[in-house]
């Protein structure tokens, strides 16, 4: 599973839209779409904010990505 796929899965498991997540993390929903489709790599700050919001570690987010 890619980083973007994992981020999408976590967001959807928490019943959030891209717009809702964007508001919480102060990121445009269009940027979230780019991250989730693996068209753009998220910044370290975004990854940290995303992980903190969903109470997971950045290492958990990157685990599958690092193994590919």
Description of the molecule:
- This protein has 68 residues and is mostly helical.
- The protein contains five helices and no strands.
- The radius of gyration is 11 Å and the shape is globular.
- The mean pLDDT is 93.
Q: What's the helix count?
A: 5
Q: Beta-sheet strand percentage?
A: under 5%
Name the helicity range. Answer: 55-70%
Q: Specify the biggest β-sheet.
A: none
**Low-confidence region ranges:** none
The gyration radius over C-alpha positions equals 11 Å
Shape: globular
Secondary structure: number of strands:
0
Please write the string of helix (H) and strand (E) elements. Answer: HHHHH
End-to-end gap: 9 Å
Helix-strand makeup class: mainly alpha
Rounded mean pLDDT score = 93
Q: What oligomeric state do these chains adopt? A: single chain
Provide tags for this entry.
single chain; mainly alpha; 69% helix
Characterize this entry briefly:
This protein is mainly alpha-helical and about 70 residues long.
Annotate the secondary structure layout:
Blueprint: H1 3-13, H2 18-25, H3 29-36, H4 44-53, H5 58-67
Helix pairs in contact: 2-3
